[in-house]
Amino acid sequence: MENKPIIKYLTDFLDYLEIEKGLSAKTQENYTRFLQKFFKWLEGNNLASLSPVKLTADHIWKYRIFLSRHIDPHKKTGLKKSTQNYYLIALRSLLEFFVEKNIASLPPSKIKLARDKSDHAVKFLNLGQIEQLLSAPDTGNIIGLRDRAILESFFSTGLRISELSGLNREQLKIKKDTRELEIAVVGKGSKVRTVYFSARAVDALRNYLGKRTDMDEALFVNFGAGKKREDGSWRLSNRAIEDIVKKYVLIAGLPVMATPHTLRHSFATDLLSHGVDLRLVQEFLGHRNIATTQIYTHVTNKQLRDVHRQSHGGKDIKS
Questions:
Q1: Which of 287, 288, 302, 312 is labelled catalytic?
Q2: 210 vs 22, 76, 116, 174, 213, CA distance in Å?
Q3: Residue of 64, 148, 160, 235 marked catalytic
Q4: For 127-305, which CATH class?
Q5: Could you report how far apart the first and last alpha carbons of the chain are, in Å?
Q6: Under CATH, which number does the domain 6-110 receive?
Q7: Confidence (pTM)
C-alpha cells in the first residue's frame, strides 16, 4: 500500500474495520466522525498532504492542544476530557491500522490520552452499559475471545489491572464441567484474597483458552505486533489491557470513558446495590482499610435517596 496522505487512508481504514475487525456500520460511522476532526485540523494547518511516515509526536501534541482549547459552536463550551479521548482513541486506531499494513508511521503508543485530575468522582457503569461493553468484542477470532474474557473477568472479580495482567494459566483449572471458579490472588501490600469467576466469565475464559496454541504461561497474551517482555513472555502489559478496555468503550458507544478501574468500581457498586455488606465488599476488593471501600456508599446512598423520593414522598398523606 503506497504511502499517500493520511487523509486518503480513511476508506482503506474503514474497509479494515469492516473486513478484519468485523465492526458494525454504526461503529465505522463513529470512527469516521472522530477522525474527520483530525483531518480538518490537518487541512487547517496546511498539512493535508502529510503522509503517515512524516507524522510526528509534535503534530500529535499540537492536535491535543487544539482539542483541549476547542469550543463547541453549538454548546459554547469546551470538549470534555472524555470526549477529547474519543478523538484520540480513533486516531490511535488509525495508527494501529498502519502498523497492521506495514505502513511506516508514528507508533500508536505515542498517543497519550487526556487525564482529568479535577474529577475524582467514582465512575461506574450500570448493568445495561456493562452488557453493551461485554458484548462488544468480535468472538469470531482469538483476539476477540481474549478481549471478551478480559472484560468478563474484570467485572466478575473486581481485580485490579496489575492483578489481572499478572495471572498465569496454571492458576485457573478450568475443565469441561467447571461452572464457577475461585482462585487466590496476591494484591497490594502482599495481601492474599480469594476472587470469584462467574459461570459467564468461566465460559469466556474456556472459549479463549481453547483456542490458544502457544506455550506462554501468561493468561492474557499479545497476538499482534507487540514486543516480548524481558522475561521472554508475550504477556499483555497493564497499558495494553487499559487500551483494550477503552477500545471497546468506543465500539460500544458508551457515554462514560471507562477504564479497568471503572469496571472495578462497577463490580463494587453492583454488590452494594444488591445489599452486600460493606465489610464483605472490602474483602472482595482487597482493601486494607474500610474507609477506602466507603467511597462507594456515596453512589449507593444516592440510589437509596432516589428510591425514597419516588416511593416515599408523603404524597398520600392528607392533613
A1: 287
A2: 21, 52, 40, 10, 8
A3: 160
A4: mainly alpha
A5: 80
A6: 1.10.150
A7: 0.59
